[in-house]
């Protein structure tokens, strides 16, 4: 059946042909989609932006967008429906198209990725508000020019202040709404609390303490700025009539009072500022510890089948970078927000109380400053994203080359890699220069706006003082106040960006929390001493997501206390049998039985303690050999440890090491060979002494002589134990009591002992002849 073509996302541009984002589906199956998108063809930056946008969405596991063919491969987990994945792709393409419309690179320059450009509809709405914003900010220019219009404005100061406040609120609200739309979670049907409330959670008291200290620190700063001009006026005028009316006579006494008050304000600002910094950081650390602990505990209890659908790098990013992002926002940006609110909350009433006729001009540039802060920050995000992307490519290539050092040497491609790194380094430097130029513009424009507010305040305030409608005592403390507001508002853009990043990080963290957990309680107890080890797969069918069945109506019977071998071609479902028995996965149909009981009815911890599972690629921790062998049996004695190592054939190479059992194995056992790692993992399982042992290619990396020694030791150790040996190398299962030969789909092709199967002339015979190099028994 032909897939319907998606209608194009079409946006007109000025003086050029419209850009089209026609989307044609190539294939859509559960967990995977392939699309062809015209917009991406010939646009590497657009392809990278589409990949980046999609990978930020919850549930998206892998994205590959080709700028050569325009095709996109999208993989997502089972919690995301095909319809939802298509919607996420459309949103990503729309964002890419909007970014292309807001950036017009010259033809003689390579395309730069507009990674975080504003969607066009938001830019247009901002553009529609721009005249009113500029009109409010232009009140400063009108004050300088003077004339009848100035007199009209002066007659309506409260009206103009209201217009300024409304314009500022409109800018902030619009930016905030864009922020929420840009980072909206795909889980739209779930009504949840505000992100900040979810972050703070049970730490409301600590949050209140930090907020109060921040407010008091800002109050001290404002008092210091207000007292400084008053001291200058006192010295210039030779006294203050206002202080004299309150009983402070004499210039010296008045000066001492104001200087003392200024010193007190300075000390209060420093003391409360220190307390606020410590309080915010302690709150941030508490939140980080709480979220990381709870998230890690949840991940440890997630069912392996669900965790396999998550990329390990993504889970690691959530546990490290995303939770740290939440902590960083609390530690720094929340303090900025509280100080900004405190500044405006005190400045506006102060102006209305002391000098209402000039309040509007002092705050006229505020909406313009807010708009510029958001606008320039949005542009800076695009340049920073381009710089980060190029730096990431450079770092990734360097890391890859270091891991591939031997391959590069053997291929004699050192110069080739040097040229590639040099080119990537040049691109990274160019992107950094563009980013630096973008970052240098906003501060100067914001300084200009703050200076305009100061000039307007001095002009109108000075005129009012000369006319006698405003006292110098009231006007002096207000001169520096607008600068404080401008400074705080200039951080709006970066604060909003950090809020966006934090909400996105929180969504990814909470998505991990939504993964289903394994049952830690319930089920029938299974004492290890009572386990006989009789295993049966009864008409089991199982398929991994998006793949053909690994097992199709498979039935196996593994007798207790015996050794059973399972062999077959790759993809025949051999390892799947072990995973179903361990309850890493559950069969789609049929039953997996242990001692006649369905494993799903047994207590999960008891089941896994009863089975020792050694995989082909065992994992070793960055610890000593002794600690790795003891893992899971922490109270084992040294004698038991050495006995387990001897049974696994590991004692000889361990004793040859300078530090013996105290030798550190390095990250993931990097200091050991593959065979040595397998023997340590086997010793770990032997030390646990489980009634059932599954060896999944557990000796594939050892030589034949070592394997023979291990098999001889396992024959003694495996007496009266159920052992399941999964192998490609038939010599590994040659002495098994029975052998299953599995074919495609997990179907049992043959069954019998080694001698029976070799003489039968079937699949096993062919494999034995190929591996042993002889047509008869040894």
Automatic annotation (TrEMBL):
Which is a GO BP term held by this UniProt record?
oligopeptide export from mitochondrion
GO CC list: plasma membrane
Respond yes or no to whether keyword ATP-binding is given for this record.
yes
The main location class comes to membrane
Stated name of the protein: Fatty acid ABC transporter ATP-binding/permease protein
Q: Where is the ABC transmembrane type-1 domain?
A: 208-501
For the region Disordered, what residue ranges are annotated? 1-20, 100-125
**Endpoints of the signal sequence:** none
Taxonomic superkingdom: Bacteria
Q: Which UniProt keywords apply?
A: ATP-binding, Membrane, Nucleotide-binding, Transmembrane, Transmembrane helix, Transport
What protein family is recorded? Belongs to the ABC transporter superfamily. Lipid exporter (TC 3.A.1.106) family.
> Cross-referenced InterPro entries, in alphabetical order?
AAA+_ATPase, ABC1_TM_dom, ABC1_TM_sf, ABC_transporter-like_ATP-bd, ABC_transporter-like_CS, P-loop_NTPase, Type_1_exporter
Its annotated function is as follows: ABC transporter involved in fatty acid import. Transmembrane domains (TMD) form a pore in the membrane and the ATP-binding domain (NBD) is responsible for energy generation.
């Amino acid at each position: 059946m032909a897939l319907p073509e998606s209608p194009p996302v079409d946006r007109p541009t000025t003086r050029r042909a419209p850009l089209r984002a026609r989307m044609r589906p190539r294939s859509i199956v559960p967990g995977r989609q392939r699309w062809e998108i015209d917009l991406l063809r010939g646009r590497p930056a657009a392809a990278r932006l589409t990949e980046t946008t999609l990978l930020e969405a919850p549930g998206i596991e892998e994205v590959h967008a080709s700028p050569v063919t325009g095709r996109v491969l999208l993989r997502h987990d089972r919690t995301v429906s095909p319809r939802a994945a298509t919607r996420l792709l459309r949103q990503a393409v729309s964002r890419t198209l909007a970014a292309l419309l807001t950036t017009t690179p010259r033809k003689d320059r390579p395309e730069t990725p507009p990674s975080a450009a504003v969607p066009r509809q938001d830019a247009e709405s901002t553009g529609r508000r721009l005249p009113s914003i500029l009109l409010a900010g232009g009140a400063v220019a009108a004050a300088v020019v003077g004339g009848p219009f100035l007199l009209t404005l002066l007659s309506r100061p409260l009206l103009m202040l209201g217009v300024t406040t409304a314009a500022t609120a409109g800018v902030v609200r619009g930016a905030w709404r864009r922020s929420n739309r840009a980072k909206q979670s795909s889980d739209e049907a779930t009504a949840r609390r505000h992100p900040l409330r979810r972050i703070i959670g049970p730490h409301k008291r600590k949050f209140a303490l930090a907020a109060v200290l921040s407010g008091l620190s800002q109050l001290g700063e404002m008092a210091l700025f207000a007292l400084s001009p008053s001291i200058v006026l006192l010295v210039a005028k030779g006294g203050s009539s206002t202080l004299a009316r309150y009983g402070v006579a004499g210039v010296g006494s008045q000066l001492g009072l104001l200087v003392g008050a200024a010193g007190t304000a300075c000390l209060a600002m420093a003391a409360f500022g220190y307390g606020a910094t410590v309080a915010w950081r302690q709150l941030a650390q508490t939140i980080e510890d709480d979220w990381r602990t709870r998230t890690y505990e949840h991940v440890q209890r997630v069912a392996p089948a669900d965790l396999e659908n998550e990329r390990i790098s993504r889970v690691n990013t959530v546990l490290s970078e995303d939770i740290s992002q939440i902590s960083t926002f609390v530690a720094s940006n929340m303090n900025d927000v509280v100080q900004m609110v405190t500044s405006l909350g005190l400045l506006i009433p102060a102006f209305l109380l002391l000098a209402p006729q000039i309040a509007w001009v002092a705050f006229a540039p505020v909406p313009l400053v807010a708009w510029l802060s958001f606008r320039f920050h949005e542009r800076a995000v695009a340049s920073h994203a381009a710089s980060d992307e190029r730096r990431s490519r450079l770092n990734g290539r360097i890391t890859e080359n270091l891991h591939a050092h031997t391959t590069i040497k053997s291929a004699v491609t050192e110069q080739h890699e040097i040229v590639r790194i040099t080119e990537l380094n040049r691109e990274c430097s160019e992107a950094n220069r563009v980013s630096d130029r973008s970052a240098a513009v906003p501060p100067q424009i914001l300084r200009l706006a703050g200076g305009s507010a100061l000039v307007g305040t001095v002009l109108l305030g000075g005129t009012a003082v000369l006319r006698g409608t405003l006292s110098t005592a009231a006007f002096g403390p207000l001169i520096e106040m607008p600068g404080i507001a401008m400074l705080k508002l200039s951080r709006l853009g970066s604060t909003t960006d950090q809020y966006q990043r934090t909400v996105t990080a929180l969504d990814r963290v909470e998505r991990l929390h939504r993964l289903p957990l394994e049952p830690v309680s319930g089920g029938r107890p299974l004492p290890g001493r009572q386990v006989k080890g009789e295993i049966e797969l009864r008409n089991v069918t199982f398929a991994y997501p998006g793949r053909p069945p690994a097992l199709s109506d498979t039935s196996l019977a593994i007798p207790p206390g015996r050794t059973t071998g399972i062999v077959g071609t790759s993809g025949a479902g051999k390892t799947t049998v072990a995973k179903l028995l361990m309850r890493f996965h559950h069969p789609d149909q049929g039953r997996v039985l242990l001692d006649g009981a369905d494993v799903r009815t047994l207590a999960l911890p008891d089941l896994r303690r009863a089975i020792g599972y050694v995989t082909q690629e065992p994992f070793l921790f960055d610890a000593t050999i002794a600690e790795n062998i003891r893992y899971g049996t922490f109270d084992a004695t040294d004698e038991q440890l050495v006995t387990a190592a001897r049974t696994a054939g590991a004692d000889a190479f361990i004793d040859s090491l300078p530090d013996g059992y105290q030798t550190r194995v390095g990250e993931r056992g990097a200091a050991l060979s593959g065979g040595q790692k397998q023997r340590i993992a086997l010793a770990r399982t032997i030390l646990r002494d489980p009634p059932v042992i599954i060896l999944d290619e557990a000796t594939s990396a050892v030589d034949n002589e070592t394997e023979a020694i291990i098999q001889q030791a396992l024959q003694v150790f495996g007496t009266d134990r159920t052992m399941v040996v999964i192998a490609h190398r038939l010599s590994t299962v040659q002495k098994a009591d029975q052998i299953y030969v599995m074919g495609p789909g997990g179907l049992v092709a043959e069954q019998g002992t080694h001698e029976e199967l070799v003489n039968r002339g079937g699949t096993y015979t062919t494999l034995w002849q190929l591996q042993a190099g002889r047509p008869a028994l040894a």
